[in-house]
């Protein structure tokens, strides 16, 4: 719980995973602050006592100069008394009004406020006083935000074959100093490492992986704000490399440069707010006087390139093995039954060694030692690190068959009466079938991540860059690669075209289809000042968009990163496979040795109960076949793929439907859910309340009434308060009406606000708030409240100078399909409960309309979390659906937290699943998808273990006494390969998942 709370606290400061929600959340934003405050702010402050003077102006000028030299400072305050979003908003506003504040973020759950400020203009003491002036206790704490030093590194790891390999790599990384957490995924062949960059560097992590015997390729270090690979065309020499490095390093924002002369590639890490790919290319070409040209490296998306390379290698290896294996198979299994060919193959070369045996020896040797070299190297590395894997079993099985055959053939060559029996076809065919299985497996595994590829394809390939003169006039346009867009570029978006980058509109108006990102089915109107998201489609009209978030900072890139991280996370059920794999390979080796020993000893007896063994059969050869078959068929490859492949496909499918599932843990918990707790506002309802009626109990002008109410509510972040302020604005003709000053503002979460407006004591809130404030509520007001509650409307009482003067009725429309969703959940045996801070009357009316019977109203944020815990203690698996900061404690407490995508950053960070479309029916889809996924996972274990449970006894020869049936080792190898392919293909069927048809998805 503490870790989760800290994660939520850090998300308020716009770090880590909160970057994704920064773009997705629809929350009010403050105007951007200038990088350096203006000196007049200080002058004004200094002149409070009696006007400004020449000395004040000089002091201000000196302070400004000092600020130019002084870096920003971070202060963290402990703030007591906050309990909801309104409190946090009040503190944030109060701090940001001070001069010299660059940014501020408030964590209501942790009771902290982090402020980024310039010490030349404001001090920590002034910030503390500003917080206390609005009614909260504040205390400066010396806490360094250590998460700034924690980075996430991603590595591609080559050579892993089963869960034993992943456990070896994971253990090596976890043991490395400075590594907090390491997760290795077999399905993606990637590792995600959370580490402290002050203690360990990314290249040291690569060495740690390579020491375990696997090859590691860096995907991202986490240290780079942006990273680009450029292809360099031209003749390299030491002089040009030196010129290139010095010229690029001189650019502002460049952090690191790596030149690979063999691949003609240069990798540059840079800060996108200071430079960009076009600047880098221009510098490279101008510094070398045109001798070298640069372009985006075609393998920038190296993962796909590596996959295709691996597919190609396995395909080539398999085809080469067939060239040698087919003749071996024909000479041992086919030609021996054709009279003419049989005589030729059985012709003796040296003593009892035949031509057929010699040919099979010659043909199988390249397969064993050249084509099968990777199994030797993999087995050697695994044994060196004490973690035997699939390669060990394959190497043992094939070597046993090959070297026994060599012994048998050589003995025949030096003997005049020994008849040899070789198993060359076993070793060569075994390797060929395993290579075929790996080839098919990689092909299938590649399809599990197609959802990410589709997400990345949303970004257009090209963009139209507008060229401006010094006065800001458009003088031309140029088509560029969309990957070359830099921060603050102005991009032209034509009707029907895709928006190439996150940004805001500076000219034009249109409608943009954002369904592929936000799920909003209707095109959204866009005009000057509105934000747009990269990858969305412009419906009509031309837009000029200024790029703000590019490259890895874009919303699309962060969604992709979140899905990738989710696919890396292991589901708890995978621990089952990990535990088995740790002991499986050694157990199989022991089992195969026992099988050989039993059959070898059995061959030495011809009486009961072993009389069914033909006396002519060599017991050693028979035992050898059975032992090799057991060793090969029991490889645990499929077991390691059972869970991760299903999780990968499910998270990808979820992302394509606007449901971001944060890993296997969330997916596994969701399928067990039997109780869902719904918040009301913004979850069951649209979340945009509107004023529908006003009843005055005293003679007064409606505009004056609303001026006082809006002045008090303007300081609150509560949705109902915003609805009242918006309604009050409509009563004034001017666009930016200034409300009267509200003094002594107090907000009581879940109840209302108090303030002094125009010398009147204004109290706005619910019935209990009025009674606790000593205000008598007349019968007429109570009757009006009862009427409004029956209509599912919220009645807000307004009192002035201890007397009730009016009631404002606010309605929040119920979301479409809300009743159908609750009904469908009931058919899934999932109980629905509504918990809201609203009054009982409104809550009951909403509950009746949507079909929820269990309702808890007038609940504070902590009470929501307590209710979740009560349900858990009663034995239920609880999901919480919410959208606000006040829902965050419950989202964290629940077994599964589902955040509505249009909610706050904190709620999204606290949740396990994010419903990007904000559609209530996606709750059903998320649970249904998780259930379907875990059905697939269970079936995968059936496939994986079924092959072993059924195959091992048959391979060990249980059918031989009765039917003389033997499972040849190469057939066992084919079965082992088929088990892995079948598991992956069974997971791939999830790609065709359809949401419940009831909702028309």
TrEMBL record:
It is a multi-pass membrane protein. Keywords: ATP-binding, Copper, Ion transport, Membrane, Metal-binding, Nucleotide-binding, Repeat, Translocase, Transmembrane, Transmembrane helix, Transport. CDD domains: HMA, P-type_ATPase_Cu-like. It catalyses: Cu(+)(in) + ATP + H2O = Cu(+)(out) + ADP + phosphate + H(+). The keyword Repeat applies. Its main location: membrane. This is P-type Cu(+) transporter. It comes from Urochloa decumbens.
